[in-house]
Design a protein that fits this description.
The chain has 352 residues and is of the alpha+beta class. The chain is built from nine helices and eight strands. The strands form three sheets. Strands 5-6-7-8 form a four-stranded antiparallel β-sheet, covered by helices on one side. It has a two-stranded parallel ribbon with strand order 1-2. It has a two-stranded antiparallel sheet with strand order 3-4.
């Protein structure tokens, strides 16, 4: 089997990931990405392959590491041909900050998503032209939510709920599923598709039943984790949800605060202005900037997670049940931050 990876890897040391082919290309230039994929498939004709493409879009962008200005590129090489214009529709409900600056920023994000979508289409056309659209497992997944406050680096739904599409010829059928799948299911799925045994204990499971049958039984609870983004601030979080409720455990509440922004997003700063004084929006952003140890949300009545129910007597049974479930999962997976000495090492490292 030959392997290739295009775009960022984001884990280290890179040398431990021995890809055969690592083309250098600006992955925002999605036509170029498709060309590199075609070159790999043509050179590997007749042999099994693993092709990984990690697009830069829809991440925010800086001209250089020294620059403090982040932005989204509405167009790259003329893509998309019809960029979305800023308007009242280009505001995230889970932020609710309707200002000219946020309209522009969010419209820019939508345009990077459109470019990504076009790029994936070009990649799928390349796969088809190479004669492999009928024998290749395709998994499309995002690594985190949008780089906006209350999204990326958080355990709110906007941070954890990412695109996840599986196309498995001969197995999957087209439908949208509400099953609580996770990226921990990717490795078992690939092993299943390639007929390989499990290398050891895994907490994920093959998506075979979930992508072939909309009624297939799946997990009742889903756990999410955030460790850190950069060295400081070190503010790890854990979360667990069922079909209705979500519990977030902020592991350093009271001793540290998370960063009030991400990738240049001004939403928190704008939430503190007089225009949002004493509103649900400002209160939600205050919780975001200085969270309590536990947050509990009813995702059915409050999908944007604005009203923290933790500590309310009428929700005590639900809160306690989710706390037990989260602790059980952390123990089963040997969460390193359950160990005080490891947590302290990370805290000390962040202070250096």
């Amino acid at each position: 089997m030959r392997t290739t990876r295009t775009g960022k890897l984001h884990v280290a040391p890179e040398a431990s990931f021995r890809f055969d082919y690592r083309p250098r290309v600006n992955t925002r230039k999605v036509r170029d990405v498709a060309v590199k994929a075609r070159e790999f498939l043509n050179a590997n004709e007749g042999h099994p392959f693993f092709l990984m493409v990690n697009y830069s879009d829809p991440h925010a962008y800086r001209e250089s590491r020294q620059s403090r200005a982040w932005f989204f590129q509405d167009q790259v090489d003329g893509i998309p041909a019809d960029p979305i214009k800023p308007s009242g529709k280009t505001i995230f409900p889970w932020q609710g900050i309707d200002t000219p600056e946020m309209r522009v920023r969010t419209a820019g994000y939508y345009n990077t998503v459109k470019r990504l979508d076009i790029g994936v289409g070009l990649l799928m056309n390349t796969l088809k032209a190479a004669g492999h659209d009928g024998d290749t497992l395709v998994i499309f997944v995002g690594d985190h939510g949008p780089p906006f406050c209350r999204g990326k680096t958080t355990c709110y739904e906007a941070g954890l709920r990412v695109p996840f599409i599986v196309r498995w010829p001969g197995v999957s059928t087209p439908f949208a599923s509400d099953a609580m799948v996770s990226t921990i299911d990717i490795l078992p799925t690939i092993l299943d598709a390639t007929g390989q045994p499990s290398p050891g204990t895994m907490h994920g499971r093959s998506l075979r039943p979930g992508v072939s049958d909309p009624q297939a039984a799946w997990r009742d609870h889903l756990v999410g984790e955030f460790h850190f983004h950069g060295r400081r601030p070190f503010y790890p979080r854990r979360a667990i949800r069922d079909e209705r409720f979500k519990l977030i455990h902020n592991l350093r509440a009271g001793s540290e605060k998370p960063g009030p922004g991400i990738d240049g997003d001004p939403a928190y700063r704008q939430s503190q202005t007089a225009a949002f004084a004493d509103t649900r929006i400002q209160r939600a952003f205050n919780t975001f900037a200085d969270p309590p140890e536990f947050e509990l949300y009813d995702l059915r009545s409050d999908p944007i997670e604005f009203e923290n129910l933790a500590g309310k007597p009428e929700f005590k049974a639900t809160e306690d049940s989710l706390k037990r479930g989260l602790l059980e999962y952390r123990r089963a997976t040997d969460d390193p931050f359950l160990h005080r000495e490891i947590m302290q090492k990370m805290i000390d490292h962040a202070r250096q």
